[in-house]
Structure prediction request, 222 residues.
Amino acid sequence: MSYAIRPANEADVPQLAEIEKEAFPTTWPATPFKRELSNRTASFLVTYQLPGNRRPVSSVSHERPGEGSDITTRGWRGLWDRLFQRNAPASLTDNPADYVAGYVATWYMTDEAHITGIAVRESLRGNGLGELLLMASIELAMRHQSRVVTLEVRVSNHVAQSLYSKYGFSQVGSRKGYYSDNHEDAYIMTTDPIFSPAYSQQLTSLEETYKSRRGDVALGLG
Prediction:
C-alpha cells in the first residue's frame, strides 16, 4: 500500500473533525479546522492512499537556500525526487483515493515549528502513517526555514515518545497538568537544528529505511 501527503483543504474539514474526535475524544473545545486552514502561521497536512501503482515524481531538494553540502545534495535530493508528488487530488469528489487517513498540524513561531497534533484513523493505525506524517511535518518545517521542531507529548504515551526520539527529538522540559482531561503532565520534546549535517544525515537514513519497509510514498506539500 502506498500513501501520499498533501495540504489539507476545506473539503477535508468534516474528516479532520471526525479523526480528531476519534483520536482525541476528550479534546474541548474542538479544533476550528475551517478557520485554522486560513491561518498563515499554521499548516495542516493529510495522508491518503495512492490509487493503484501510481508513482510519485518531484524535483524538490532539502537544501536551505544559499546553502548546500554533499550530505544534503546526495542524500536528500535523490530520495525526495522519488518521494515527492506535486499534484495531489483536490477533493473526495475528484478522486475516491482522497479519503483522509490522518493529519498533522503545525504552527510556525519565530524559528520553531511546533507540532500541535498528529492523528490517524484507528482502523489504519499500525501502517506507519504517524511516522509518515511526522516526516512530512519536518520537511515542511525545513521549507519554512525553521531552526528546530518541537512538540508536547503525554508522559504516559511511550509509543509516541519512542517515535519522536527516533526522529531526533529529545526531552527538554515538561508542562505540569498540561492536558485538561486528566491534568496529566506533558514532556516538551525538541530536535537539534534540522539543517545541521548530522541531523540531515540521520533523517536521510530514516527516510530510506521507511521507504524500504513501507514502499513508495509521496509528499505533495504544495
Observations:
- Helices lie at 13-23, 33-36, 70-83, 129-143, 158-166, 197-214.
- The chain has one domain: 3-145+197-219.
- The first strand starts at residue 3 and ends at 7.
- Residues 53-63, 65-93 have pLDDT under 50 and may be disordered.
